[in-house]
Every structure is written in C-alpha cells, then in structure tokens.
Amino acid sequence: MHVRPENPVIVQGDGKVLLETSHKKYESARDFIARFAELERSPEHLHTYRISPLSLWNAASSGMTKDEIVGELRELSKFDIPPNVLESISDTIERYGLVQLIPHPDDPTLIRLRFSTAYVAKLISKLKLSTELMVADGRRHWAIQGGHRGIFKQRMLTEGWPVEDIAGFLPGAPLKVTLRTAMKKDGKPFGVRPYQKEAASRWHMDGAPSGGNGVVVLPCGAGKTIVAIEAMRLCQTKTLILATNAAAVEQWVREIIDKTELTEKDVGSYMGAIKQVKAVTVATYQILTYRRSKKAEFEHLHVFSDEDWGLIIYDEVHLLPAPVFGATAELQGRRRLGLTATLIREDGRQGDVFSLVGPKRYDLPWQMLESGGFIAEAKCFEVRVPFPPHEMARYEAMSKQAQFKEASTNRAKMSAIRSLVKRHQKDNILVIGTYVDQLHHIARAFKAPLITGKTPHGKRVELFRQFRTGEINLLVVSKVANFSIDLPDANVAIQVSGTFGSRQEEAQRLGRILRPKSDGQGAFFYTVVTKDTSEQDFAMKRQLFLTEQGYRYYIEDAA
Predict the structure, then answer these.
(1) What DSSP element (H or E) covers 450?
(2) Does the reported pTM lie above 0.85?
C-alpha cells in the first residue's frame, strides 16, 4: 500500500470520500470532488462526500470521464483507493450512453433504441418495467412510441440505466430573438457575461441532438435569467417559461423586454386573472397545477400542448410539482432548460429532473463567482441562543415535531435579533422566517412591514419597491421571499426559523443577499438557532449545500 500523509483525501471502501478542511489543497479538492459526489456531512475539520450513481451520471453528461475522476482522486488520496470503489466508479459512469434514443429512419411516430453492444441489449430485454414499453422494430431493432419517451427514461433510470436521449427536437414556431446592446429601462450597456454565455452554449451544444435539454446551476444573483435569454437567442423559437410566483413572472417579463428587442406584444403573463398566451409566455407553477378539487382535471395544463413551443424554461427547477413532471414527460420533443441554484430536491426526485428535464450541463462554484465580483462576498454566521432554564424543561417533555417548533420560535431569540439589527442599522436587512406568528411579533417589535403569503400582490410590489429605493431598510418576510425576488441592495439576512433541514431553502435565502452591491460591500447571513436543541441539529443539515460551495459558518453565542 502507498501512503501519502501529505494529501487531504481518504476514499473509504463504502465509497465515501473524506476531505480535511484545514489542508492547503482543500479548496481545489472540494471543487473537484463536488463535480461527481454529494456532500453528506460537514463538521468543522472533516467533510464527508458520497459518490452516487446519479452524481456520476451528471458528471458524465458534463464531460467528466472515469480516467479523469480516478486519476485526480489518486493524486489527492492519502492511501490507495479500494479496488471495489474503482470498479464501482468505472461500472457506473460507463453506463451513461450505453442505451441511446435516436430518431427512427422510417416512422416518425417511433423512436429507435440503440444499444452499445448485443450484451447490453440482452440485459435490457430482461427489465420488465422498461420492456413493457418496447416494440419490435423489424428483425434487428427495438423502438418505443414517441409519447413514451419520458416515462421510458424514468423507468430505465430506476433500473440503473441512464438513457442518453439524442432523438432530437421539434423546431417549434419560429421567433426572432435579438439581444439589446443597451438596456431599454436606463440605456446602460448590456452584454452577456462570459460564464452566462458558456452555460447557455454547453446547454445548446450548437443545436446538436445531444444538447437542448438539461439544467444550469448558478447561485441567486448570478443572472440565471440572462442565461435563459441567451438560450432563447440560440433557439429562435416560441418559448414557455414557468416561474414560482406572480412577482417572479413580472420580473421575467420586465427582464425580457428590457434586454431583448421583444416588446409587450410578444411577451405575456399567464397567472391569476391575467392569462395571455403570446410568443413568449411566462406562467406560474401554481396556475398550471390548479384544479377545483383533488378529483378534478388540471384546468390549465393544456397550455403545454396547445401551442407550438420550441423551448420550455423551468425556473427553480428543483421545485417542479408532480403534475408538471407529468406534463414534461409528454413533451420530450421540445427543448427544455432548467434553472436552479441547487439541484437538491427535498422529495428526492432529482432522478426525475435528470430523466425529464435533462442532466446537469453547467455548474459554477459560488465562490468562483464571488472572487470574480459577480456575486457579493458573503459571511455566514450561526448565532446560538439558549432556552431559559424553565423553558428547556418544558421543551424536553414535548414530541419531536413540537420540539422543533418550540425551539424555532424561542422568544429569547428577540434579544439576539435586536443586537444584529443594531449592528447593521445602516444596512438593508431582511428578517426571514417560517412561522407567521413569530414574524408578526418581530414586525411589531421593530415597527417594520411584514410580507406573508396573505399579503396582496400589489402591496408586496409596493413594499419591495420601497426597500429597493431605500424608503425602508428593514423588511420582515415569510417563506414567500425564498424565491425569485430581486432585491439588489439587500445585504443582511437574519434567518429566525426555517423548514427543518432544508438545504435548498438555506441556499435560496442566502441568495436573497448575493447580488453585487453598488458600493462593493459584502453580505452577511445570520441564522439564529436555539442552542442544544433539534433546531441546532437541523441547522447543520441545512448548511451542507452552502458548505459544499465553499462557505464557512462562524459560530457565535448570543450575548
């Protein structure tokens, strides 16, 4: 056995990868490992990653090879890599592309299957769930019906066979999309940043059948909307965009009109009382999944199929609701672009995103963008607040679920929040939480406006405007602020409660303050937790994704 104690990595026989955080090679090793493995635990000195089939297949789709992974791992490892791990990496990553979907040469209603070898074809023929969808295609080939393209890929993935889909796409109705050189709103110069152009290019792949589907992962504030607009320019086709809420829809419409030559007659909103179907249509997930009862039909899913879309864009793709997955499975002939800050889904449906929207095409570490000045430099703090002694006894007698809420809404947090607000009294502060009663209490204490799910849309828009213009510098917001809100001058976030161990919520909330500041200042992200409780344990789980991106959490005890 070769021993290299100067290296920072240990690869275990169970496939876990351990990384020393104090090592001089930590950052470069972290960025490399994150391309093909998932961070599982991040205590202060030793981080644990897990190599999974999906993480390897996403790596393969982005161009990583078995030799690249194994070669660099060997260079970084203290000890020899266990043979079973090397064999698992090789067998798993090389499965990507062994089964392909290709255009049928004679019948446009069918899609032909192409297997890398006769042996692979024999193995696939034994998979009951998948072979139910396969039809004989002459004497030597197999095919599937065009409408089964999505479900076939889903089933194959569950069997451990990631399908490479190169069957191509329908062109969609043509639409001329030209980018402006100066923004319409203020006349300032506009150009697509190099990394945004690269992200769109890797997704599009010069129009090749292997491109035109997949996910781009970039932090909030890095301009995912611009990546989408560049993708629209590359495709030149009628486009459907799905967003999380009404504020996000309006923001998409503004951005498209501001940065392209498209006008109000070309770009429409489909939500609530406004249902415009235009060459570019921006809809909410909520309206598409609306139905009058659990047994009723989804009244608006027809928007997917009624028009000749050439491109469908999924904003915050990690939040796709189940009915949209279903509609997407039937729309595999359209180009699909997913946008997100994190591919983590708390429901575990990352595999469905891979199968139906496409694999990860581009992922740039957050701190690389920070070092380039494209997003604000951020410092993350966990502020620990004790329970008063008499409250701790009551807490310990509760059920697990009740304990979490009790710790999250600990009234003793108010002192810590006051101290943080005073520390940043000249800054623009968002106080973000999950429990509305707690937020009402905080808003009253600071005489600050509060935005919740019940706040009328018009009032939300006005409060966000006042915050942007500096008329107010403290805003209390519920979970509605997790997604797609453009508050470029917010530079302090105080998170007072969250949704259990939700890593994607942690990433989205930090993202609210990452837009570059006009004065070049950094951002501060505080999480206030009750010490020695389940909330503190869940906080560690929440921090996993951001730790993977290079952020360190500094621990403070509340004064």
Answers:
(1) strand 450-451
(2) no
